[in-house]
Amino acid sequence: MHIATALLFTIGILGAADIFIFHTIKGRLTQRTECRKEVVIHVLRGFVYAAQFVVIPNYRLTGGWFWALALLFVVDVIIAVTDVWEEPKSRAKQGGLSSAEYLMHIVLSVLVGAMLREVIAQTWGDWSLPTAITERDTFNSISFVMAFGSATVAVCEALALLTSRPRPIHVRVRLDASVKEVWEFTQDHHRHPEWDHRFSHIEMLEEVIKTGTLMKYTKRIGPFLICGMGRYKLHRLMKQSTFEFWSDQRLSLIRRGVGLWLYKELPDGRCEFSTSYTYEVRWGFVGRIIDLAFRPLFQKYTEASFRRLAREHFAAPDATVLGVAGRLPERFA
């Protein structure tokens, strides 16, 4: 494994330079909300590299353990492909990747391919041997230092994500209906769960909806029933509803949040309906980790609700629903 180890160490050194120069100094990826997905990918890759630094130079995995090694490389390939897929969207506001970073990625890809070929050549047939983890004759302590460094960078990037302010959720749609029609339908709390996937039931605690009105809401997720409360902070007829919401239920990831609905009349008489909201999570550090995956899903969930609203209630199956780019909502052309 001497050649594979040398290639791995070279990849590690160049990868560290890539992170420091292009991700941290120039790109400031952990500080840009539009780059959050890319940073999550980099965090996962950091832990995969840490495992490779420990295993490849120091241990031979045979029998059943061979497939664990194969899985490690499969995960590495999936992460690499996902990173390539995400980068154009993540770096769009920065004008894409620089020529120098492209060159770095090409060199790293060639080295990774060469290392993978060498590992396959050295381990081919090991699945047929007895299941065991055997220490190699030349134990390499430097690899553990590099593994520690890779894992440390991944942890630091993860902490930067968890302590940064998450981006709000923005969704908007243009409907072939008047503001009055959209307002009356979307403000009907009895029919709200028909189109909004986020709620199973809404109950107003006052007959007239106005600033200060309280409501109860529930959402059933499998066998679990999530309960919460909401209050209208500002209610301007056919213009805007601003609200706050919270849940005292420990089962709920969302502790409290704020949001608004906006109704805008377009020059042709149609209505542009939009929402923006954000929230705080409970469960401390664990909750913030879960929210890294939950918030993008909630963004998509809300977009799906707006598509459902347009398709099923305003006869607009092809309506364009816009989401979010960075911290700002996307704009209609």
TrEMBL record:
Transmembrane segments: 6-27, 39-59, 65-82, 102-121, 141-162
Classification of source organism: Bacteria, Pseudomonadati, Myxococcota, Myxococcia, Myxococcales
Keyword terms of this UniProt record: Membrane, Transmembrane, Transmembrane helix
Superkingdom per UniProt: Bacteria
Protein name: SRPBCC family protein
